[in-house]
């Protein structure tokens, strides 16, 4: 098993390596260059997906935009890491795998788009299993601020970049290098999203894509009480809360307890009084 550090990511394409693990470390000054090189090595360039081609220049105009861009590239790295082979096959028909999930359904990557583009906030019923995976990711990252109460002002998924190990042969992700518990949990949330998207890739339907088919999120994804965006404007900046009134479980399997559930008992054998 061969490990390549961030600076060595440029050697990724070697055909003589039986198994290769790429380590992307945001603490390294070459992080952004290495991520872009990684995309090229697996056949996916930033220009190939509409999110970065349309908003890349806009993101670079402010410090907040640069952070948002790095976060989106990191999420893209995770998704590309487990789907690289299928993504290259998709380029000839519907574009890069990552672009397929930007503006998909009611929830897919909507949190990041909402913050960056002042777009309609995520909400409503997921349109399919891909959308459900994105909603679960939203629940997961939102609940982290509740779990890390002492870090509530800083444990935000859109503000934290973590270390990521990508096994390019096994198509697996590893978050173990993150010693900070908040960043580790954010990494685990992103890892689950990437794996879930890989599982349900076959369900992707262009009719649910805002950019490629004109899917109207505002009309098709009515917000439930308690599950919409704060302020009710649809274009406000605060992160919209998921439906429910309390976060239960742990990363990456957080869920929202509904008002009809007195306790966080999902997954427990309540007949044995273990909850």
How would you portray this structure in words?
This protein is globular. The protein has 275 residues and is α+β, with helices and mostly antiparallel strands. The protein starts with a strand and ends in an 18-residue tail after the last strand. It has a single domain, classed as Phospholipase A2. The chain contains 9 helices and 6 strands. A hairpin with a 4-residue loop joins strand 3 and strand 4.
Topology:
Elements: E1 2-4, E2 20-24, H1 31-41, H2 50-59, H3 63-90, H4 97-100, H5 110-117, H6 129-147, E3 164-167, E4 172-174, H7 181-199, H8 210-213, H9 217-220, E5 246-248, E6 255-257
Parallel strand pairs: 1-2
Antiparallel strand pairs: 2-3, 3-4, 5-6
Task: Produce a short descriptive summary.
The chain is built from 9 helices and 6 strands; from the N terminus they run ββααααααββαααββ. It has 275 residues and is α+β, with helices and mostly antiparallel strands.
